[in-house]
Design a protein that fits this description.
Length: 226
C-alpha cells in the first residue's frame, strides 16, 4: 500500500486522442489534485505570445515534439508550484526517455517517485476519428466530442459559456505526423516505466467513466470526493 502522506503523482501516457486530457480532468476532480498538461502549457504560451510559445509554435504545427530542454524547464517549473504540493496528474510529460529521466531525477532529489504510469491504449483508426470530432474550450481547455461527449448547448463550453474551437494541430495531416513522430518515443517512455515495474496498460476504448475507474484501480488511489 502506498504511504498516504506521499505526494500522489500519476502519469497518463497515450497517443494523440487517447483520452489523456479527458481522464486527467475527471481524475483531478475526483482526487483533488491538479491536471498538469504540457500541451495546454504550450498552447497558453502560444495564445499569450510569450517567447516560449514562439519557440514551440513551429514544432507543434509540424506535429514534432518540442525540444527536451525547453519542455523539461517549463514542466518542472509548473510541477514546483504550490497547488501540486499534494500531487498531480501528468498529461503529456514526460514524452521522451530523456524527459522521463529528468523527471525521475528531480523527484528522487526530493525522496519522491511517480506512483503509477497508466498507458491508455486505443487503436489508431479510433484515434483519428476522435480527434476529428474534438472541440475544446479556449478558456478552460475542457474537451468535448461532437458525437461521444457533446456539450449541453452545441458549440458552447458547459463551464465557461465560451464558444468551442478546434485545435490548429488537429488538421488530419498534422494528426498523422503527430502519430508517426510521437508514438515511437512515447512507447519508449512506457517501456522505461514498465522496466521500473510501475506501469499498467488499460483499454482506452471503453466508455469514459469505465476508463476512469480502471485508472483509479491501477493507481490504488482512494478518491477524496466521490
Ligand atoms: P498534447 O496537447 O499533449 O497533444 P497529444 O498528446 O497529441 O494528445 P491530445 O491532447 O491530442 O489527446 P488526449 O489524449 O488528451 O485526448 P482527449 O482527452 O482530448 O500536445 C500537443 C503538442 O505539444 C504535441 O504535438 C507536441 O508538439 C507538444 N508537446 C506536448 N508535450 C510535449 C512534451 N512532453 N515534449 C515535447 N513536445 C510536447 O480526447 C480526444 C477526443 O476523444 C475528445 O474529443 C474526447 O471527448 C474523446 N474521448 C476521450 N475519451 C473517450 C472515450 N473513452 N470514448 C470515446 N471518446 C473519447
Ligand atoms: Mg490532451
Amino acid at each position: 500500500m502506498p504511504d498516504p502522506a506521499e505526494r500522489l503523482i500519476l502519469l497518463l501516457v497515450g497517443a494523440v486522442g487517447a483520452g489523456k486530457g479527458t481522464q486527467a480532468e475527471l481524475l483531478s476532480a475526483r482526487l483533488d489534485i491538479p491536471h498538469l498538461a504540457s500541451g495546454d502549457l504550450f498552447r497558453r504560451n502560444l495564445r499569450e505570445g510569450t517567447p516560449l510559445g514562439e519557440q514551440a509554435r513551429g514544432y507543434m504545427e509540424n506535429g514534432d515534439l518540442v525540444p527536451d530542454d525547453l519542455t523539461i524547464a517549463m514542466f518542472m517549473d509548473r510541477l514546483a508550484e504550490p497547488d501540486a504540493a499534494r500531487g498531480a496528474i501528468l498529461d503529456g510529460f514526460p514524452r521522451t526517455v530523456r524527459q522521463a529521466e529528468a523527471l525521475d531525477r528531480t523527484l528522487a532529489d526530493h525522496g519522491e517517485r511517480i506512483r503509477r504510469v497508466i498507458y491508455i491504449d486505443v487503436p489508431t483508426e479510433q484515434l483519428i476519428q476522435r480527434v476529428a470530432g474534438r472541440f475544446v474550450c479556449p478558456t478552460c481547455a475542457t474537451t468535448y466530442h461532437a458525437a461521444g461527449d457533446p456539450p449541453l448547448r452545441p458549440g458552447i463550453c458547459d463551464k465557461e459559456g465560451t464558444p468551442l474551437t478546434q485545435r490548429n494541430d488537429d488538421r488530419p495531416e498534422v494528426v498523422r505526423a503527430r502519430l508517426d513522430k510521437q508514438v515511437p518515443p512515447m512507447l519508449a517512455v512506457l517501456r522505461h516505466y514498465e522496466e521500473a515495474g510501475i506501469a499498467d496498460r488499460i483499454d482506452g476504448t471503453q466508455p469514459i467513466e469505465l476508463v476512469t475507474e480502471a485508472i483509479l484501480r491501477s493507481a490504488n488511489a482512494t478518491p477524496e470526493r466521490a
